[in-house]
């Protein structure tokens, strides 16, 4: 009989530095050991040992490019697991980054599979202000007005609610220090915008490009003017 080795997994992700590395990789960028070490406040040599443990337990993968080795989350299931832990974990005070990311990374990017950055937070604010969404504790609920709007936008709310993934919740954006829409609804919104040609995923990156069609649609549908930026 074979069972998941949950105690080992708990020991792996329960170590603060390793959990911090997984959280950093949730932003979707492939990071070097040095970048992960800096982000978690440890020495590069210490980071290497933690990365080896995360790789042995199939939580991350690495790719060599030139002189550097880049790390990223191994699978979508790993990202969903980290996302779930972020939702249920007790909030704690964090030290904000020294400066916000500039250019394309700060304008729009993926936080795993939903929109983050200026675009993600501003769209979420509009949805809340128009009362399509409302915050209920640590969750977000779709209002009656929102049901009609999301249906018109091409999103099947009933189908999303049947998924095992959490439906919708406020996800704190590390660069904007405001919430963007996370969960299955956030992912569905992003997927719909991709289908409509409003946005596009840059190759080998989590940076989101906004098309001219998208800029016009965002201004029309959300009263949002997102300034053009370069990576």
Automatic annotation (TrEMBL):
Upper lineage is: Bacteria, Pseudomonadati, Pseudomonadota, Gammaproteobacteria, Oceanospirillales
Name of the protein in question: Winged helix-turn-helix transcriptional regulator
Sorted alphabetically, which PROSITE patterns does this protein's record hold?
Answer: HTH_ARSR_2
Query: Which Pfam family, an example, fits this chain?
Result: HTH_20
- Superkingdom of origin: Bacteria
Its source organism is Billgrantia bachuensis
In what residue span(s) does the HTH arsR-type domain sit?
A: 1-93
Show the SUPFAM superfamilies listed in the entry: Winged helix' DNA-binding domain
């Amino acid at each position: 009989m074979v069972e998941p080795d949950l105690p080992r997994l708990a020991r792996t992700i329960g170590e603060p530095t390793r959990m911090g590395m997984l959280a950093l990789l949730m932003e979707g960028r492939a990071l070097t050991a040095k970048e992960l070490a800096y982000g978690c406040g440890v020495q590069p040599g210490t980071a290497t040992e933690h990365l080896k443990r995360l790789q042995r337990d199939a939580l991350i993968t690495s790719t060599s490019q030139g002189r550097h080795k880049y790390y990223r989350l191994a699978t979508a299931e790993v990202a969903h697991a980290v996302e779930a832990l972020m939702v249920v974990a007790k909030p704690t005070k964090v030290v904000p980054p020294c400066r916000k990311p500039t250019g394309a990374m700060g304008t729009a990017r993926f936080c795993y599979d939903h929109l983050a950055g200026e675009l993600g937070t501003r769209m979420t604010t509009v949805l809340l202000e128009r009362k399509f969404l409302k915050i209920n504790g640590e969750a977000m609920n779709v209002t009656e007005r929102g049901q009609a709007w999301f249906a018109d936008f091409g999103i099947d709310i009933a189908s999303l609610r049947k998924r095992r993934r959490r439906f919708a919740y406020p996800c704190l954006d590390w660069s904007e220090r405001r919430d963007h829409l996370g969960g299955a609804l956030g992912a569905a919104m992003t997927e719909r915008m991709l289908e409509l040609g409003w946005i596009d995923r840059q190759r080998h990156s989590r940076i989101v490009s906004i098309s001219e069609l998208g800029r016009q649609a965002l201004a029309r549908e959300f009263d949002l003017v997102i300034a053009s930026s370069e990576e």
